[in-house]
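Chain X:
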Amino acid sequence: MNPTKATVILAILLLLLCGCAHRTVEMRVSYNSGWDVGEIKKCERASGTSVAPDNRGDVLLCDSGPQVDWIQSHRDAVYESAKTYSVVLLTNGKDEPWVSGKGHDTFWQCKKTANDIECR
């Protein structure tokens, strides 16, 4: 095998491995009410919406309340209600098309554990 083919194969393997590995990030998480261990909520990252986070950073928006507040530019309320957690992103999320059909959002099903929040 020539060096060019080997380099391409190695690059493809690295991309596949990086796509399969989970990522753990410390981030703010905003949700409507209590979140019991084992409970699952539908979440999306603010950075994946049409309204970019400000200098306070990204927020995981769980439940419809924080998601609507974020889009309606009530970001101060979202940041104030958010708590910081270790968030384990086990997948790249699932794309869901907008009702209008003009775009999509990426969502995760996130489960609260004793130590962190795990999102698939």
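Chain Y:
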Amino acid sequence: MKNFLRNILRQQNTGRQIGNFFLIIGQLGTVVSLITLLLAAIAAYIPIQGFLLGHNLYLKFWQFILLIITILVITYILTWKFLMPSFYNSFNKQFYAHNNPIKKDLSKISRDIKEISNRLSRLEQNGDKP
């Protein structure tokens, strides 16, 4: 059962195309979300204003938009402070684990450094200067 679950949950390397597509969609999604939020806020102003008037509150349109922008800025600050560090921590772990060319280069550099260190040690033992 344990192996079955491990096989089902194991991630698959599907190449870059799917990842590229979703990166572009994700970046585009942010812009589209902001535009949608602004349009939804404009459309929601009249019903919300009616609700607020029922409670003896009145918000001018510019105050309403300022409130929406304030909520958005607070959300961005919280995202920057808490979500982004976690996101990049997770991303870095994934990036390191799956066919990372930098990891391969670092492994090669590490092997080269060990080989150079061994050569220097042998030269020093023989009394030769590098």
